[in-house]
Amino acid sequence: MIPFTRVEGRAYALPLSNVDTDLIIPAEHLKTIRRSGLGGHAFEVLRATSGNVFDDPANERAPILIALDNFGCGSSREHAAWALADLGFAPSSRRASRISLPATPSRTASLRWN
Fold it and tell me: pLDDT tens digit string along 103-113?
């Protein structure tokens, strides 16, 4: 991954706390050791719901995912970090679990929260 110091662009607002790794990438997609290709399965449960944030055309190719506290909690599932990176996200949260942010340090953004 290419390190960066600044990310600009639209952001997906995911107004959920405690987004666990099972929600980020379902268990049936954990059989691979490849880091690419997992983005297509990320947030499958949310994407299956009509009107979800991922279907909003205004967010198309947004590089930032903003979530509430405790993003990436749950089992230590490295595939969750790979799926986020494969989607091209720079996840940001006030407090995030270790698996979601440090596993992709070059793709994370720090936002100033008011």
Answer: 443 334 444 43
Q: Is 80 in contact with 25 (CB distance < 8 Å)?
A: yes
Token pair of 76 as six digits:
């230590």
Q: Could you tell me the pTM of the whole model?
A: 0.73
**Residues 6 or more apart in contact with residue 93 via CB below 8 angstroms:** 66, 67, 68, 69, 70, 71, 72, 100, 101
Q: At 65, which helix (H) or strand (E)? A: strand 64-67
* SS3 of residue 28 by DSSP: helix
Count of CB atoms situated within 10 Å of the CB of 44: 14
